[in-house]
Amino acid sequence: MRQTLTIFAVIASVFTIIFSVLPISNLAIFPGIAALLLAGGAFYLSKKSGEVKKLIPFSFILTTLALLLTFYKAIFTTTEVEDTQALETKEIQFEEAAIEELESLDLEIDESELKELEDIEIDASEIEEIEIDASEIESINIDDAEIESLEINENDIIETEIESSDLENLEIN
Amino acid sequence: MKRIPFLIMLLLAISFTNAQNTAIGFNEKLTYTASYNMSGVLNDIAQVTMETSPVKTSKAILLRLKCTAVTYSKWDDFFKIRDLYESYVNPKTLTPYLYSRDINEGGYYKYMKYTFSHKSGTVKSLMKKKNDYQENKTVNINSGTKDIVSTIYNLRLIDFNRMQVGARKSFTIIFDRKETKGQVTYLGKETINTAIGKKECYKLAVGSSDKVLQGSNSNLVWLTADANKILVYGKFKIPVGNGELKIKSATGLKS
After folding, report:
1. Which keywords does this Swiss-Prot/TrEMBL entry list (chain B) (predicted)?
2. Whole-model pTM above 0.90?
3. Angle at A168 between CA A166 and CA A173, to 5 degrees
4. What would the mean pLDDT of A86-113 be, rounded to a whole number?
5. ipTM confidence score
């Protein structure tokens, strides 16, 4: 009986060590407790017979070290993701490819739905990158009727500061 | 282990008819911890992130729905997962136009792309695997069939306040070029503790016609009982075990 308990205690302590170094270190508690109980039983029987083998204290020490490692990992190790650069690069590539593909698709979107997308946040850096063709500005037509119907608030004029140097440079055609 | 990311996605997948989007904003980011039960002990396996962003084309502004699953660094040496699922949808109805799935799990690689044509009821699929293997196939789909990502988000368009306890909604998703039927059952409201505070939630049971999700009430999701209806907690049971999905953070919410 004593020998059996000793053997099982050593096996359990080996499992405790194995689990404690793996990512599933919190599972080491089960063989750890089993190893302590088995080693304890073996030690008690050994004391009774007057012959304590070195394997039993060895099993205690191994199990204790493994459990200490398990508790250390549980308390001080934070779970986090690493090595995601490849995934992030892939996300950007997929988005660019998707936009190209979406351009060729018939999206079946009702125009009235587009008018409601007013609260979209647009990154300012994207606006800075927009290229405006000067020829497009020249070709803009302004309807005279729109100018005539333009209403100017007198208060806006009063509050406007006009520098005399600006007036000197003003050309009226 | 390979099935866990897909099953997390399927657990969340629900589709609906043309409900309008009042819950999902353009720059939302939800981060979750996926855990798997090993011998009675839950182990944190991976981080799941769900993000939305606007995508501008010359015709329209679409909504990009992106889901990633990444194993924590301690698992990378044993079984590394880098999954990317994305769907480009109509921002009002969440109808998908383009879907892609790129999975890299323990050395296994697969890429799947669906181009939807709702008018003709077809999906053009492109599948790629390692060694430059490619396969094109056109699949017929029923009206209302969506990809897994857009169906996950469609879950949040349901008006649960109008549902009675025990009420069911069915859904069809296309996955691996096959249509899969499932249903969600409304189980009532429940208040639970989460990393983002104590939340009153709608509790839902999810089932599927194939035996991927096991049990009738073993696969559960909790959505916040507010205008956002974000998923804060999920439990799943699969042939190889069971696990959980817990929210870590939520930013950019619409309401």
Report:
1. Signal
2. no
3. 100
4. 83
5. 0.83
